[in-house]
Amino acid sequence: MPEATKDSLAWLWLSVLVIALDQLTKWIAVSSLALYQPVPVIPDLFSFMLAYNTGAAFSFLADAAGWQRWLFAAIAVIVSVVLCVWLSRLERSKRLEAIALALILGGALGNLYDRVVLGHVVDFILVHWQDRWRFPAFNIADSAISVGAALLILDMFRGKKQADS
């Protein structure tokens, strides 16, 4: 196996860690929270609240007849394969990009497991401002995907800046 591939695929342990943490926290949420009943952690700002999402981000297509479960599962599988190939081809020096891809992969697989096994994604983190504004509930997998995407964007701009100088 080429050296770059071995080094790049070593980041898959980060993906496994994300999946494990995601599934553990979802299990705790399902075991200890009542559906749609917020439990304030920081009043007027942060709560835990169990919610089931049959759609995609922001409950996109959540009201569809059920076909969306398999569409989003297929998309997650395709994206995961693409991320693994991308990760396997990275040069050793591309650490930030590798971390970003591993986070996105772990998040995608964490939510894929829920979608295939449970038929919905378990969400439990709720950020809000008093009773006036609520961000859609999310989970550790969603957080890993978001952080990974932000790191990819940061790496892209960092790389562009280095190329311009």
3D architecture notes:
- The protein has 165 residues and is an alpha+beta fold.
- It has one domain (3-164).
- Helices cover 60% and strands 14% of the residues.
- It is built from five helices and four strands.
- It has helices at 3-9, 12-32, 67-88, 95-118, 140-164; strands spanning 39-42, 46-53, 121-129, 133-134.
- A four-stranded antiparallel beta sheet has the order 1-2-3-4.
- α2 runs parallel beside α4, α3 (67-88) packs antiparallel against α4 (95-118) and α4 packs antiparallel against α5 (140-164).
- The chain starts with a helix and ends with a helix.
- 30% of the residues are buried.
- The model has no long low-confidence stretch (mean pLDDT 88).
- Widest sheet: strand ordering: 1-2-3-4
| Mean pLDDT level | 88
| Order of secondary-structure elements | HHEEHHEEH
Rg over C-alpha atoms, rounded to the nearest angstrom: 18 Å
Tertiary shape: globular
Number of strands: 4
The percent range for helix content is: 55-70%
- Identify low-pLDDT runs: none
What does the largest sheet look like? Answer: 4 strands, antiparallel
Tell me the number of structural domains.
1
Beginning-to-end CA distance, first to last residue: 34 Å
The helix-and-strand class reads: alpha+beta
**Can you count the helices?**
5
Beta-strand fraction estimate: 5-15%
